[in-house]
Amino acid sequence: MSNQERALVKQLCISCTERGKKTNKEHIFPQWLLKKTNTFSNPITGTAGNKKIPGKHCVIPICEECNSELGRILELPVSKIFERIENNQGFNDFEAELLVRWMWKITSMFYWIERSKDEDDYGFVSVKDRCLKRIENPRERISIAISLIENEKDEKYEDTAMGIDVLPKYSNVLAAGVFNKTAIIVYYSKYDHLISNNFTKYQLSSTPFLMNPEKRILPIMGFREPGEAISKVISVVNGRLLLSHEYEAVMQLKQLTEEAKKKNSFLSKEAQKYFKRIKKKNK
Questions:
Q1: For 92, phi and psi rounded to 5 degrees?
Q2: pLDDT score of 125
Q3: What one-character DSSP code corresponds to residue 161?
Q4: Which of 53, 63, 49 is nearest to 21 (CA)?
Q5: Which of 97, 61, 65, 60 is nearest to 78 (CA)?
């Protein structure tokens, strides 16, 4: 990240995109996960180009309000969901959605670090609105694939697997990573056929309030070693799956742009702000 980009990030809360608010330093990867994977003090890659820095120093500014809400609504329940999944207790539909939104949060933070100048390519909905609000209908357009890893870590490494494995430029739906003993991919359900059989695939319900919370989805043990899981996730998400999601995002933006040109078209406040930024940039 250049000095100019770093200064841009420091000026605002990357969650709500508001400026001038009192901020905290939010860990890109939550502390509970850093400690779980033994990367809190050990160097990790992927947050500053080729540099390796300890997880405890991988932070980004977030206002106090957003930081509190992210912790309460996402981090606390997701940490417990991970424990249940790794203890073969599975997850239900509500927990699947929380995992989806958590994956979007982690990926969004990386996007801001690596591509802060390209923020408008990543859609007009803020991190706060995408990750803290319930997923709107049709929910079933979103699926999550999860697989367990038999061995927690490779013998040659001190820490366990932890990191995201795809960073789209346009799609704010596709997300993937391997965290400790769990590999996760979030994607559009229409591309289900591109997910390998190493994963248990679950499509969010169109009627979540009718779902029995006791109905648990049990992910398969799809990998023996963490390295095997990482290689498979990278190969799956960075091929046709990435191209399909990027194309989808570009087409959606094109359609939205055409709508914005119509005099009587209704656009959300987020979309209106987005096009104002674009217009200002192009002057």
A1: -110, -175
A2: 65
A3: P
A4: 63
A5: 97
- Determine the number of helices (DSSP H) and then strands (DSSP E) in the chain: 9, 10
Distance CA 243, CA 251 (A): 12
Give the rounded distance of the alpha carbon of 233 from its chain centre: 14
Low-confidence winner among 38-47, 103-112, 145-154, 175-184 (lowest mean pLDDT): 38-47
Closest of 164, 57, 68, 62 to residue 110, by C-alpha:
164
Residue from 113, 217, 218 nearest 167 by CA: 113
Half-sphere exposure of 245 (CA within 13 A, CB side): 29
Secondary element (H or E) of residue 183: strand 182-188
Q: Could you write out the three-class secondary structure of 7-58?
A: HHHHCECCCCCCECCCEEEEECCCHHHHHHCCCCCCEECCCCCCCCEEHHHC
Characterise 11 by phi-psi region: left (phi > 0), alpha (psi -120 to 50), beta (else).
alpha
Scored b (16 or more CB within 10 A) or e, 176-206 reads bbbbbbbbbbbbbbeeeebbeebbbbbebbe
Q: What are phi and psi of 134, to 5 degrees?
A: -60, 150
| 254, amino acid identity | K
Please give the Cα distance from 28 to 48 (Å, whole number): 12
pLDDT value of residue 116: 55
Beta-strand relationship, 182-188 and 175-179: antiparallel
Q: What confidence score (pLDDT) does residue 1 get?
A: 47
